[in-house]
Design a protein that fits this description.
Length: 511
Amino acid sequence: MVFLISTLEECFTFLDKIEPNVLFYGLLSFTLIVSIWEHYLSYRQYCNYKRHQTVPDELADVMTNQELDKARAYAIDKMRYNEIHSIFNEVESTVLLLIGILPWLWSTSGNILLKYDYHNHEILQSVLFLSIIMIYSAISGIPWSYYYHFVLEEKHGFNKQTVGFFIKDTIKKLLLTFVLTLPIFSLLIKIIQIGGDYFFVYAWLFITIMSLIIAFIYPNYIAPLFDRYDPLREGELRSSIEKLAEKIKFPLAKIYVVEGSARSAHSNAYFYGFFKAKRIVLYDTLIKGYSLHKDEDKTDKGNKLDETKSEKNEEETNSIETSKLETEDNTLTHRKTSDDQKNAVDEDQKSTKEKTNKGCESDEVLAVLCHEFGHWFLSHNLVNLCISFVNLFLVFSIFAALFKRTILYEAFAFTQTRPILIGLLIIFQYVLSPYFEVFSFALTALSRRFEFQADHFAVKLGHGDQLGRALKKLEKDNMSYPFSDKLYATYHYSHPTLLERLKAVKSMKQK
């Protein structure tokens, strides 16, 4: 281990020969180059959206040209939003760095603690520093998030949340960020302080263990704080899933349906869990005609029917006992009420019809899950987990070789102190930025390969046709535009495009 760190330290000796200002602008320039590259790719994709296309033959059975135009309009609106948001964030972060926000905020955090007689307490100062950044980030992000959900998504019919739901969601996320982030960073800084020459090994083990713990507690205890999770009701779909799981020896423990429709019309499916206790989660928007409130709706309808009958009996009794004029008035009022109720029922029926027209049939949902089972059967999740842990060890090793170099802190105007938190920020966000770009691209390419393999698994089990239909319906329901710029898709998409997947599925079925 010592040899590894000493070797890495020698590799980075060239940094000591660079002037602090030159290093600062060099790191800043690389982030600018990456941003320009990203904007170039986005421009290519935007031009792709603007080109008029007709529905591809593969989607002719599920999509019309009008629906394709709607998908294109949605894609264009999202691209414009993402570009404006991205440029704003880049300008904001660059300006804040140039005016020296980091040393000022660190100094301010220390001055606040001094008022309460906390002198040179690095962990508390780091906690306060992080807290201020998280609060600022949360507040500054609210207008963007509000616009995305209540303007952009609302315009295209995807937003289902109310303003109250949005506010509660934002507060919950901020509190959760505090609860998880502050203790983890405090312990990490303490480990680095007392870990000695092998602190990077202890830091790596700590973050690895915390990642596994969060992966366990999030779906079981945190996710239910934001959405409703109910067991999938007994029926054909549940029986089919259980039979498929038994057939491939998938250790299925529970099947949940999450009320994704409370916040969005988008759909998804996934599984989680360790060892012999896997749990499947299906979005209610994925299952055609499914509602978590089915039983509640029946009860409500029964109550409303009883109330209507009671009101009708009362009206009949009153009509006998009252004068003819009063009877006529009551009749007019009753007709008006009936008309209002009829309009309300028509609206409900229209909404219900739109919902039942979306989603997948049971055999198509099963095919989607068969694809997910393929990731488990082929150990894709385990491979990704191992890669992430090896990568984490590597970056902590590089951090150990770099974080004591004064030049890095001086480049960001930290001339008097070398806080560990600032070292983590500089090294992970700026110094290792080129490495992370390459690593991210490699993971994206690997992910696409895994998706093809999972599709192949579903085809081998005889679900190829159903998977193809499900993919096409999901593309239509999520209003995804089927055409993409090749370079943009290669760099950004963790999944192959729909047309690529349909072509591959067709080819697999013919083998």
